[in-house]
Design brief:
binds flavin-adenine dinucleotide, 4 helices
Length: 151
């Protein structure tokens, strides 16, 4: 198996409705489990940043579906590279919603307390993904909205 990681950022489109996030997460959980893809999606109602890891062919086919999705646009690939071992092995797709506790992290990596992932480069994107992993349990507690945790 050739393991890769992929990070992209994108912007929420007008096709994104109130139920879209739940639908995207349910779809991601289902497909990713089938394809042994793991990762995390960071979201703030304006932008997405997603990290995917898995076998190269599975990650590529998933990403090509995601890029065509009309619920977002301006998809910018920040990294696609080889990986020795998974970072999010037990998460078919974890999610993190922008919240107060993440503002210092945003400020450090994006020069703004608000989540604006287009300010990231390949290196800082990888660094924030690693940091986000340690925020996962807390971020879910503070997200308030969605109650499901997608493992
Ligand atoms: P289903 O899972 O059956 O779709 C469920 C419902 O979602 C549909 O009934 C429809 O209402 C809506 N829907 C599905 N596709 C679209 C579309 N292209 N445009 C508008 N509405 C649609 N998929 C993954 O497999 N793994 C991921 O990690 C993943 N992450 C995503 C991250 C983002 C930011 C976005 C926007 C999408 C993501 N998706 C992911 C979803 C992906 O883009 C496809 O929509 C999905 O994989 C299609 O699966 P499906 O055909 O089985 O549809």
């Amino acid at each position: 198996m050739e393991l890769v990681k992929l990070i992209y950022v994108s912007t929420v489109s007008e096709a994104f409705t109130l139920s879209s996030f739940e639908e995207i997460m349910a779809s991601a959980q289902r497909h990713n489990k089938e394809n042994s893809i793991t990762g995390v999606l960071y979201f703030n109602h304006k932008y997405f940043m997603q990290y995917l890891e898995g076998d190269v062919s599975d990650v590529e086919s998933t990403y090509s579906r995601i890029v065509k999705d009309v619920r977002h646009y301006n998809v910018k690939l920040l990294d696609k590279s080889m990986l020795d071992s998974r970072q999010f092995g037990c998460w078919s797709m974890a999610y993190i919603l922008q919240s107060e506790i993440l503002k210092p992290l945003n400020l450090y990596f994006m020069d703004s307390p608000d989540f604006d992932p287009y300010r990231l480069n390949t290196q800082s994107a990888n660094e924030i993904i690693t940091e986000l992993k340690s925020y996962l349990p807390l971020a879910h507690l503070h997200s308030g909205g969605l109650s499901k945790v997608y493992r």
